[in-house]
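hi! just following up on the protien thing from before. the input was this:
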Amino acid sequence: MEITDFNPWWKTGEIARDYESMRRRTNFSEIIKYLKVRQVIVITGLRRTGKTVLMHHLIGYLLKNEVKAKNIAYFNFDFFVDDIEGIFKKYKETTDIDYKGEKVYIFFDEIQKLNDWQNKIKIYYDLYPNIKFFVSGSSSLFIRKRTKESLAGRSFDFQISPLRFTEYLKLKNKVKLIQDIVLYKNEIKGELKDYIKTGGFPELINEKDDLTIKKYIKELVIDKIVYIDIPEVFKIDEPALLQSLISIISSSPGMIVDYGSIGSDLKRNRKTISNYLFYLEEAFLIKKVYNFSKNKLTSEKKSKKFYPSTTSLAFLYGADYGKTIESLVLQNSAFKFFFRKGDKEVDFIDADKENGVLPVEIKTGRDIDKHMEKSLLDFIKRFKVKTGIIITEEYEAEKEAEWFGTKGKIKFIPLWKWLLEK
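and the predicted 3d structure came back as:
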């Protein structure tokens, strides 16, 4: 492919209509705040979640804000294997832009495919302050490690994730459902069933066929990461072991992982299991949550739960409904903790420093058991917090409770409402 193939706006003055028609992600409004600063914008995330689309939306924004078309250049290293020096040479030959003297915006997609990219960008960054770089990659560890090594102080990082439920509805032009959630309750619940299967992948939002969804997730996401992305970065010997671990975690979301026990079952040592789970986490296929403690070091040492990063993985590997809903809640939140001590367990702990600690339980049964709040109340008493949340199928209420002489609340919130109101 030629450089001009990647940059149609040099001729048309606008990005391709297919990109223009796609709704902008939440990350877009965050990133445009940093367009005028020198630092490299680093975009990472799971395959097929829209990093390339996001880059084109940023290009479209620049074009609409009177940046000359030829002063914006995009290159994708999935297709374009030239070195940075060669790219700049061809860029100048094709456009006659003096990138050493003019303000230019350079977008490098799938940058991890280029050897020693971080040091090469550093050279241009230091020599030519007029160049604004944007880079993307599918491997979090690879990008972060390289930016810390050579671009420390020279980059800002942004992670793009699968669509959250509100983003999914907006992308499907279902904004009216969000605007009146009571009126459109049944429609919302119908969309939620589809969202759980498609997992927040933008290309799947209108797909109804289960087999097509599963084929997409398996071949275009998992297999690409397991057999291409991770081996290119970590030089692993056993991609099949990665597949086994994905299957184990995705079929039983929220499992507490004992590295030694899994290693024994798979006939691998504990260190290998730990490393391979780390690779999957850094490739955005799984998420890890920690057993909550006010002492961060203690949380690191305690047992950990693992979840698939999107509900589509739980769907692919046949996880039961309750566990899939746990994955759904995690995908639509920033929770990093759960709590377990003895026979008491709380599904998630929101430990936001500004708003304090909030325990969150998930109960998918239709009947609300009056004893179901036991673990939640135990946590509330133990850590002296004033509010707890139980996410339910349909039940909605707010109960007063008293602990240590202080009145507090337990809120029961239907899942569909929590996803849209939180």
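The chain has three domains: 3-160, 163-332, 336-422.
The chain has a mean pLDDT of 91.
cheers
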